[in-house]
Amino acid sequence: MTVDRDAWRAFVDARVGFTDLVKRASPRADGLTTAEYAEGSARVRALVEWLGPAVVCFAGLTGYRSAVDRDAVEGEQAERFGGAPTYVMPNPSGANAHASRSDLVRHLTAVRALASTD
Asked: Among 14, 25, 68, 103, which residue is least crowded by beta carbons within 10 Å?
């Protein structure tokens, strides 16, 4: 990718779709509703089916568990989402204290490698 932290360039250059499920600010993931997660899941699924990224990466394990797979763990998922290989990583928000910089780099490196293999 040629531009640091630019989701559009990540999609254009590496065919990686970065997303979360709910597009509103909240102090914590548990402040979002089941309905918001379900609506977000449907919206993202339609986008993935339409745009066809090499991989879709969800930022936020809590949201992914709420909307898609309650037993999901960080990393590549066994089930595709919208037809694309799927990866779930911790939310990179500063409020997510347990996700270190090195952890995030490891996840992003794995996402890029997954995009290169599809």
From this structure: 25
CB-based contacts of 97: which residues, under 8 Å, 6+ apart? none
Main-chain phi, psi angles of 80, to 5 degrees: -75, 155
Residue listed under structure tokens 């595709």: 80
Neighbours of 51 (CB within 10 A): 13
pLDDT tens for residues 43-64? 999 999 999 999 999 988 888 9
Structural domains present in the chain? 7-117 (3.40.470.10)
Tokens of 50: 């339409």
pLDDT in tens, 19-30: 888 877 666 666
